[in-house]
């Protein structure tokens, strides 16, 4: 199988990447089930990348139903070491406006009912997650955005992404609670992916595309799906340019990430005493440590 070091996960409204060349569909199975869709493997300015539509190309999966583990495992199978996630988010701050871009550096977990670890079944691991986003990848993403001088695009480097369960959007009381926590943006998917990517020793960073003011802003309509998709379409071209530039810089100078050795001090169970079936299930993640 071709080794691909850079993965791109496209969220709501970003179901394909037009700039990808020489594409082929790769259908993968994992010990955690099937990914959301086939991965599209191709090249961006000569660099091999894998693209996955997070919700499937026809947007069939709720945030709760997404096969997050299979998606990250499939990326790992291809050899991916860096994941750039492009996602729609609501803004929780006046100064973060629809069409702005945010590269968050923190998450708050408000999810309730989704598996968010590869471990268990006899193998216990606790990854460090104080810095949930790879600082190096986030830096490259931020520098790429700045270098493009995109007209009418304001970048916010850093900020906290609230990851809620959904699928219903927040109540005003919730939205105001998150504002009182000084959170910056809200979405339903990226924290779960970031945790699993860290367990899989893949660097992860988010390109958050602001589509709405959620429901707290007195002068703006409450978020709707129509609003999210309309705003995404309006900055889809910028998003693709940013991803392309980030891939170019990453390929030129791939950084060492804290994520790449995340399991070194995380596994508690002596692997020689671990159940053989679990070791087999986790072989791709554990092979460096067996
Ligand atoms: C279509 S509105 C809600 C939906 O949009 C965001 O998706 P993604 O993170 O995949 O871009 C949000 O997290 C919800 O899943
Ligand atoms: N306001 C919002 N809440 C949760 N997810 C979103 N995705 C885009 N806008 C959102």
From TrEMBL:
Binding residue positions for phosphate: 12, 54-55, 87-88, 189
Binding positions (substrate): 188, 212-214
Top EC group: transferase
Nucleoside phosphorylase domain residues: 5-247
Cellular component, GO, one term: cytosol
Metabolic or biological pathway: Amino-acid biosynthesis; L-methionine biosynthesis via salvage pathway; S-methyl-5-thio-alpha-D-ribose 1-phosphate from S-methyl-5'-thioadenosine (phosphorylase route): step 1/1
Catalytic activity: S-methyl-5'-thioadenosine + phosphate = 5-(methylsulfanyl)-alpha-D-ribose 1-phosphate + adenine
UniProt similarity note: Belongs to the PNP/MTAP phosphorylase family. MTAP subfamily.
Name this polypeptide is given: S-methyl-5'-thioadenosine phosphorylase
Organism: Pannus brasiliensis CCIBt3594
Encoding gene, per UniProt annotation: mtnP
């Amino acid at each position: 199988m071709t080794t691909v070091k850079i993965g791109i996960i496209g969220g709501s409204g970003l179901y394909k990447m037009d700039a990808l060349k020489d594409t082929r569909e790769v259908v993968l199975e994992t010990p955690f089930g099937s990914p959301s869709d086939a991965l599209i493997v191709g090249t961006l300015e000569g660099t091999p990348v894998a693209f996955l539509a997070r919700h499937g190309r026809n947007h069939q999966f709720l945030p709760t139903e997404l096969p997050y583990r299979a998606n990250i495992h499939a990326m790992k199978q291809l050899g991916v070491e860096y994941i750039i996630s492009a996602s729609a988010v609501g803004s929780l701050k006046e100064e973060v406006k629809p069409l702005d871009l945010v590269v968050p550096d923190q998450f708050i977990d408000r999810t309730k009912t989704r598996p968010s670890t590869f471990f268990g079944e006899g193998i216990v691991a606790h990854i460090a997650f104080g810095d949930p986003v790879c600082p190096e990848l986030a830096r490259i993403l931020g520098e790429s955005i700045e270098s493009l001088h995109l007209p009418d695009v304001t970048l916010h480097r850093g900020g906290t992404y609230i990851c809620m369960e959904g699928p219903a959007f927040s109540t005003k009381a919730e939205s105001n609670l998150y504002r009182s926590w000084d959170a910056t943006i809200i979405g339903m998917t990226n924290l779960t992916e970031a945790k699993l990517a860290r367990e899989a020793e893949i660097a992860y960073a988010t390109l958050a595309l602001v589509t709405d003011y959620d429901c707290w802003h007195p002068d703006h309509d409450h978020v709707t799906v129509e609003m999210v998709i309309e705003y995404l379409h309006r900055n889809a071209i910028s998003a693709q340019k940013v991803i392309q530039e980030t891939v170019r810089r990453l390929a030129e100078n791939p950084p060492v990430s804290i994520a790449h050795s995340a399991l070194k001090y995380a596994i508690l169970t002596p692997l020689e005493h671990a159940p053989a079936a679990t070791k087999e299930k986790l072989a791709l993640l554990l092979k460096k440590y067996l």
